[in-house]
Amino acid sequence: xxxxxxxxxxxxxxxxxxxxxxxxxxxxxxxxxxxxxxxxxxxxxxxxxxxxxxxxxxxxxxxxxxxxxxxxxxxxxxxxxxxxxxxxxxxxxxxxxxxxxxxxxxxxxxxxxxxxxxxxxxxxxxxxxxxxxxxxxxxxxxxxxxxxxxxxxxxxxxxxxxxxxxxxxxxxxxxxxxxxxxxxxxxxxxxxxxxxxxxxxxxxxxxxxxxxxxxxxxxxx
Amino acid sequence: xxxxxxxxxxxxxxxxxxxxxxxxxxxxxxxxxxxxxxxxxxxxxxxxxxxxxxxxxxxxxxxxxxxxxxxxxxxxxxxxxxxxxxxxxxxxxxxxxxxxxxxxxxxxxxxxxxxxxxxxxxxxxxxxxxxxxxxxxxxxxxxxxxxxxxxxxxxxxxxxxxxxxxxxxxxxxxxxxxxxxxxxxxxxxxxxxxxxxxxxxxxx
Lengths: 221, 204
Known about the structure:
heterodimer; A: mainly alpha; 9 helices; B: alpha/beta; Rossmann fold; 5-stranded parallel sheet; 4-stranded antiparallel sheet; 9 strands; 33% helix
């Protein structure tokens, strides 16, 4: 546990220090919110209906921004050897890395999501649901993205590979989350979507690290 | 405490190529072994196989403690250091941040990291970012964890290649102390090690 916290602190410092972290997330949202009305036209009712979906889309894409290098940096500079030989199993290393990514990028994005949705004219009634959805969804995005990043280790054009691996895995949480928000806005039962999203995130957090550790071992071999 | 390593009938294969086969090597407390051989002979791969990062095609690497054989996973997790030719340091972090992380991660303390930095003449460099350091200075930061968190077996890959003459001598002294305390060194080298050692040629 002590080793896990030591690693988590380092990963957070790295995510924070390399131009990532909350500022990147906020800048990303600012771009989306500013550019969308210009691209999609000014009709307020159209923007309002797009808003929850856009918040989701931005969340998924922002997660991909910084995930590609999650393991690659450590693999290239030899730090992954050190992490593999440390007191914590590689599974725990993977959890620490993905958790740090979520804390540095996913969680700030989730907290900024309501602001972005409101700015685009979404009904304020969806905000209480948007935050938990975005937090849970972001967690799934971080862990699944980490899986993609670990599988792409050591390959050239890893970024392309990550996007291809991760895309189908990102589909269910987007459907569940956006579905729940849509249902709430339309006055329909929405708990089903939320629970499916939570279940999916839980599965990603539980199973992702096992796959990531195996992929890292394979890359080191 | 790790007392001996027994490598039996080890064969390593990388891709389609057999690096070496049938290697037997025993290292016991206080021994230093220098691995020599041409480039690409498999010295680095042997170090990584001992560390458990590479799966051997054949043969075993056994670890022995005072009370008999140790489980390999346990021995690797707390009885060996691997310093490869990549230093494993993040270029944007300060030398102290990186040294402290590596020390704590391998089981040392903040005080031991300070002491190790002093022994390797790093005190003036600790506030600098890693990317501002020269190759030799970076290597010394990487080597500092050997002292900061004491472990019995040092697996070193060209440890002294970037070091200047003065620091080579200094590190030789630290290696001698490690051996005198019952430690073991397995190093891939092209220049002779500055301590009395056995030379094993790989892939000859």
